TrEMBL record:
Its EC number is 2.7.1.49. Residues 14-257 form the Pyridoxamine kinase/Phosphomethylpyrimidine kinase domain. It comes from Pseudodesulfovibrio senegalensis. The gene is thiD. Residues 276-445 form the Thiamine-phosphate synthase ThiN domain. GO terms for molecular function: ATP binding; hydroxymethylpyrimidine kinase activity; phosphomethylpyrimidine kinase activity. It is an enzyme of class 2 (transferase). It comes from the Bacteria. This is hydroxymethylpyrimidine kinase. Keywords: ATP-binding, Kinase, Nucleotide-binding, Transferase. NCBIfam families: HMP-P_kinase. Pathway: Cofactor biosynthesis; thiamine diphosphate biosynthesis.
Amino acid sequence: MKRLPGILTIAGSDSGGGAGIQADLKTITMLGAYGASVVTALTAQNTCAVTGIHAPSPEFVARQMETVLKDISVDAAKTGMLFSAEIIEAVSGFLPGKAFPLVVDPVCVAQSGGKLLKPEAVEAMVRHVFPHADLLTPNIPEAELFASMQIENQEDIARAAEKLLAMGPGAVLIKGGHMESVTATDWFVEKGHKPIPLIQPRVETKNNHGTGCTLSAAIATGLGQGLEMAKAIRNAQRYLNLALRAGFDVGQGSGPPNHLAPMFKERAKKDTLERLDRAGRRLMSMSGFSSLVPEVRMNLALAVPFADDENDVAAFTGGIVSTRRGDVTIAGYPCFGASVHVAKGLVAARRVAPAVSAMINLRQDKDVVEALERAGVPVAWVDGEKCPPYVAVADGAWEEWAVYDAMQSYEAPEAVRAVCDRGGPGREPLVRLLAEDCADLMARLCALIDCSGSRNGC
């Protein structure tokens, strides 16, 4: 087997398993690299508090560094909790002339509030570690501490980044998770360049313990795999966002992101294809269903849990068609990425209503609209006149914009279960029916058929 990139984490141990060395090694492994570690401190902590810290001697930390670097090829490294000035100096002795990129996460305080960096260590970090960092990744409170200023807006971000860059790092990523905003924006700044906002959807969760560790470890892994800095950061952001969306309660306090989320998502793909295949067979035998098939090719899309884009959405390669005799035929087979139009519409719907995982496009006429009303389906209407000129009809761009805009404009966006489009030049009027799963979709289709003017029953 080809050698995996070696990623070294130099950080503290979290007995609760959510941050520090534990989070780093989970992240590194999940993203396809080999993790080695130098433990700078032992913490007694859980999801609620840090109840104790025990640091090894600086000499033993140096012994770990020396032993690892003598034998294991390191392609990138990161630092986390360094705790004391003495340990910082022990670690920094190995940084001059290093042959690998270094990500420095200047950890000061745990999510639970426990202090992880001694006050006298702040100056040591700036003097001994910052000059060797290829990337510095402070959150807002840490950036305020090291830059000796308050950060309240974008202009403050730029000034703080300038101050931090003057301390020696090659680039700075100021993490904006602590700022009040609809999205989570991190600011990437390189010397001589303006700050670049890197935006991700904000995830409302209490399980955010170890997010900084996870992000910096993911960035280091990307750098060790040969990615450019900006690409490594974007990939790390997506990984963390997925892990946050897939988080679950571990204890009574702030739990960690779910570091195994990509594996669980990949495992779900086989089951998703099988459920889509069964749903297709059910549609072919559903009485009255052919009356809902539009002139354009219909398709049914089904998303895996925590779907990010159209590649996480399965559909039928040839779509669903109705013959002149009213027979419904499934053309092709279930496959991920099979229908970019329906898939992008479904992903857009999930940004507003995360519980939704299925979408099917139906004929839209007076009879179908009235059936939606009788069935009590919350309907959002697309206002085509609001569409920006840069949105093309091709490649699913229209579906992505139309579904998201219509649902966002509805009084209760998460409740929407049908998006109606009146059509336009080159576009047939359609209903995009949404459901939480295949069983929910079948029930909604049966209700529509039952409530339609033909009264065929299901």
